[in-house]
């Protein structure tokens, strides 16, 4: 996404621009882009409070939906080839479920109600219990899109159905701090949480990949004797369990735009400090692997290639940096008698070494 409202698709094979998507109605900077499941569509959110769905092949604008607030993150529903739903996360209000066909929006609950009626309307920018509005909203679909995971400022993850928007379970995150990001691994087995207490946490998903909402309802029906609030928290333990925590215990920096690698084996996070372009990589098992350091400018976004060991980072200046593994050539693997040199060496030949008929043959 560009500052002039356009979206540019870059081809890794040709190392050039493959397509440029431009809308005359949108000249505001793009804040978020999201590919559809099969790569046929792109959703772009802009500073002018709009969402635009593009057809990648034809370059045509399919629909444009105006919203009430600027969208920080927008995610397409992953369960269909032609998505009709998306999640929009504004900067300072509750996440919104948007119907791209009709333009209708549904504000998602950000706090579990104390009673059994979790369909009560929420006050604008406030929790159901009347507490002050929260600062950051975060939400994500699960792998097949039948559940939505919403994070709030109380350090809770609310698990709700996409169709009915009813809260089905509540998961308490250690630390109880504001949840800034929620990201699923590509295989749907792990969930990554970025909290305001300077820690990235990974949870293991115990629900089935398909029909997770139905499975959660079946578990809920078997424990009707629990009170509603206790039941939601108990069901939360059946959804997610805490797996690992990542942080820099020395500098205690804040994190931004964390994500998984394509295979889910690695966790990557960027420093949120101004004037730093630092990317930290951990193995999912917990140990720190490497830090990638770029130019002295803030990092705004980060993405890991779904199949290759490549990381793309965006700086405040608008430059996109591609990080790849530094491959060392090993010619001795092809020619066992090949001798590798650390530096240039001057070779002194014999006096008759390059003669047509060396003295030894005369």
Automatic annotation (TrEMBL):
<feature type="repeat" description="WD">
    <location>
        <begin position="30"/>
        <end position="64"/>
    </location>
</feature>
<protein>
    <submittedName>
        <fullName>Uncharacterized protein</fullName>
    </submittedName>
</protein>
<keyword id="KW-0539">Nucleus</keyword>
<dbReference type="InterPro" id="IPR036322">
    <property type="entry name" value="WD40_repeat_dom_sf"/>
</dbReference>
<dbReference type="InterPro" id="IPR015943">
    <property type="entry name" value="WD40/YVTN_repeat-like_dom_sf"/>
</dbReference>
<dbReference type="InterPro" id="IPR001680">
    <property type="entry name" value="WD40_rpt"/>
</dbReference>
<dbReference type="InterPro" id="IPR019775">
    <property type="entry name" value="WD40_repeat_CS"/>
</dbReference>
<dbReference type="Pfam" id="PF00400">
    <property type="entry name" value="WD40"/>
</dbReference>
<keyword id="KW-0853">WD repeat</keyword>
<keyword id="KW-0677">Repeat</keyword>
<dbReference type="GO" id="GO:0048188">
    <property type="term" value="C:Set1C/COMPASS complex"/>
</dbReference>
<dbReference type="InterPro" id="IPR037850">
    <property type="entry name" value="RBBP5/Swd1"/>
</dbReference>
């Amino acid at each position: 996404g560009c500052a002039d409202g356009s979206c540019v698709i870059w081809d890794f094979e040709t190392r050039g621009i493959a397509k440029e998507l431009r809308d005359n109605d949108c000249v505001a900077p793009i804040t978020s882009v999201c590919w559809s499941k099969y790569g046929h569509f792109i959703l772009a959110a802009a500073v002018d409070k709009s969402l635009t769905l593009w057809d990648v092949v034809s370059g045509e604008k399919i629909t444009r939906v105006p919203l009430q607030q600027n969208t920080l993150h927008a995610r397409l529903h992953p369960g269909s080839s032609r998505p009709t739903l998306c999640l929009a996360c504004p900067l300072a209000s509750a996440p919104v479920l948007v119907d791209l066909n009709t333009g209708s929006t549904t504000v998602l609950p950000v706090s579990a109600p104390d009673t059994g009626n979790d369909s009560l309307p929420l006050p604008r920018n406030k929790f159901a219990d009347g507490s002050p509005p929260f600062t950051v909203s975060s939400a994500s679909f699960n792998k097949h899109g039948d559940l939505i995971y919403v994070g709030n400022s109380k350090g809770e993850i609310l698990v709700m159905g996409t169709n009915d928007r009813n809260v089905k379970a509540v998961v308490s995150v250690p630390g109880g701090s504001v949840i800034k990001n929620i990201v699923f691994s590509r295989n749907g087995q792990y969930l990554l949480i970025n909290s305001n207490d300077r820690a990235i946490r990974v949870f293991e998903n115990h629900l089935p990949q398909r029909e997770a909402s139905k499975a959660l309802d079946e578990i809920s029906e078997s424990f009707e004797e629990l009170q509603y609030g206790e039941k939601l928290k108990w069901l939360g333990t059946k959804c997610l369990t805490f797996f690992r925590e990542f942080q820099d215990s020395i500098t205690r920096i804040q994190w931004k735009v964390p994500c998984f690698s394509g295979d889910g084996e690695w966790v990557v996070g960027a420093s949120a400090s101004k004037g730093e372009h630092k990317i930290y990589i951990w193995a999912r098992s917990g140990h720190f692997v490497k830090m990638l350091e770029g130019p002295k400018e803030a990092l705004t976004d980060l993405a890991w290639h779904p199949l290759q060991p490549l990381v793309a980072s965006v700086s405040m200046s608008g430059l996109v940096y591609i990080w790849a593994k530094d491959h060392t050539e090993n010619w001795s693997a092809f020619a066992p008698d090949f001798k590798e040199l650390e530096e240039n060496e001057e070779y002194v030949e014999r006096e008759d070494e390059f003669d047509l008929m060396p003295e030894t043959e005369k």
